[in-house]
User: Fold these one by one.
Assistant:
Number 1:
Amino acid sequence: MNNDYTDLRNGYLETIENGVNGVRRFRSGLSFGSGSRLENLERLRKEIETADAIVIGAGTGLSTAAGFIYSGERFEQWFFDFIQSYRIPDMYSGGFYPYPSKEIFWAYWARYIYVNRYLDPPKLVYEKLLSLVRDKEYFVITTNVDHCFQKAGFGKSHLFYTQGDYGLFQSKNPANRKTYENESWVMQAMEAQGFVRNASGQFELPLDGRIRMEIPSALIPKCLDDGSDMTMNLRSDDSFVEDEGWHRASDAYAHFLDQYEGQHVLFLEIGVGANTPVIIKYPFWKMTFDNPQAVYACLNYNEACCPRQIEAQSICLDGDSGEIIRQLCDTIKTIRRDEE
């Protein structure tokens, strides 16, 4: 495979640099927006319908709203034995625990990948979001790695997963810049732990509730090309593999932004927290500031805000993103029904 991507745009770095440079302009503080909730819902509905293009920037808050919660009942259902043995407080923390063997480490990760990549989220939030933009020119940039956009039906050519994918492995050999699909391995590793498939083909606990917290040594994933140990294709340091698919999506994102530069663009930010604002939030602020025709919308729980310099171009909706999306869908259905 040709790993020379010099002919492709790096939309990831371009927008980060743009956002970092632009955020220096926003020194007048933040605003929580203006207008009532109903007014802002109606304004967002109109923007979705009238925008020339919609750029969706999604963070973990969107998947949380869809039911992908890493603690509580869902965590206890799938990892009760790890909780008892290792006192792991939540699913995410368990991914970093120093397990005593690779067999246990990969048993944990097989479950982690299965429930967060190969199961659908409990709520149809992504599907409802797609219904809002399906007939629009849209592009999605996301820091999420759970594949929920594609599972909901968003077109692959409209998506840029910047931080990796739970469904991909990469070799620990730094010279190998490929990624490898892991679905077949995950299913084997789940069966090896004693999980059984139900009538729907999904794994569940056996009737006796007995499962193993390890996989056979022969199932420890090894790279088929170089024999090296495998690791997750998740961005944590500079060893993260940006493969051909990643670079083509990054290039597509850059060209989409260029195509609609200066036009009526809705930058729709959903569930983006403060951990990685340079990837989505800061660039969205800067592109809105630079384009008088653009509108920035922020859907977030307790963090819906915008710089004061773009307050007039912004829509801030505080609350559960899934509920906001549901309300938008219901309003549109009511309007269309009344028009018939």
Number 2:
Amino acid sequence: MNSLFSLPLPFLVLSFITILCALYVVTSKNPVHSVLALILAFFSISAHYVLLNAQFLAIVNLMVYAGAIMVLFLFVLMLLNLNKDSEPVKSKIWGIAATISAGMLLLVITAAFQKSGVAIYKGSADDIGLVKNLGRVLMTDYLVPFELSGILFVSAMVGAVLLGKRESNSESLLDKGNS
């Protein structure tokens, strides 16, 4: 059976950073620091995707999670204006129950991995996660749905611009029609 230290060093370092950031997200008292640690955890997960030769997933993870969702979290935290005075007092029983639950979950996951003998698969497909292959499939097998989705996105953007645009001419035309 493979030991933990037979794994590549970059994987171990990134895993350590990811777990450390995730623990800081959960244990931090400051919500802004928690969100920033979550962004760093998403960056390290994207680096894991790069190590797995899945560059497309890494970029999508960065754009969707570290970009859009984390900006949304930061805006929500800024709008909530959390004060320590308004925080309800929590009992210590919940923390103890959460620690016991997390320990039991860790025990079950460790036992499941040792029982199954998880191994790292090293296949001959070195370029399986490349964007080049995804583009080739999209432009050959799925060209019509890809083009239709592009037309749908363009029409949605045009509709959003037209709805968001404020015209003073339309208001004056409505006023002239009523008189």
Number 3:
Amino acid sequence: MRLRQPTDFLVLEALHSYGRNVAPNVAEITGKSRKNVNNRLPVLDDYGLVRKIGPADRSGLYEITERGRVTLQLRDQYDAADDFDALVDRRADSQSASAATAEAAVRGGDGDEATDED
């Protein structure tokens, strides 16, 4: 993944802080041009950092993904990491595993119980 700094991180921060939004609003929040934001959102979507949502295919409404949140958490390591993409994947996988374990604990088991079938 090749991110443009600071633009891509500003877009991710805007979606993280303000929630799902459209390019003109993200441009206003970030201080970047609408054209720049319109160009970067599909790239960030391809990287799995944001996703296009909404009732219509052409709505232009985006939200940050869990992978995008992890990318923000690791922002300071972007330039230093040999493989930032792999670093993000490892952290995202680790957080997903932790969340699954916590969810299983809330349900009172480890999620591996056998089910009885009649």
